[in-house]
Amino acid sequence: MLVLLGCSQNPDDIISQWKGKGWSFVATHGKKGEVKRTGVLQSDRAQAVEAAWVEHGKRKTKLYPQSSHHYAVLRFIKNDQDEFVVVMKKRK
Question: How far apart are CA 85 and CA 27, in angstroms?
Answer without folding.
Answer: 8
